Fold this protein.
Amino acid sequence: MKTYTFDEAKDKYIGKKGTAKRNAYENELRLDFIGEAIKQARKERKLTQTQLGELIGVKKAQISKIENNLRDARFETILKVFRALNAKVNFNVELLNQKVDLATE
């Protein structure tokens, strides 16, 4: 039986880096990590979802959605959550070597 590294398995079953399927997988994985980071920070601050929601002006259900399914959350709300948790947030934007065509007149 052949064994694969995790990277080899991802390449084989999800797709090589740069493919649409692989990019979607990687993006979803990042969103899951952010949701988990919010949940962990909330618990470290000894806050319930209800209490965190009150701090930023949303209901408990919205906090639950953010922690478990970040795809439906607004960026502004996510930033409010991190501010309420007194958490430092860093976002990195990396421009890939993709050609951008600009229309000129």
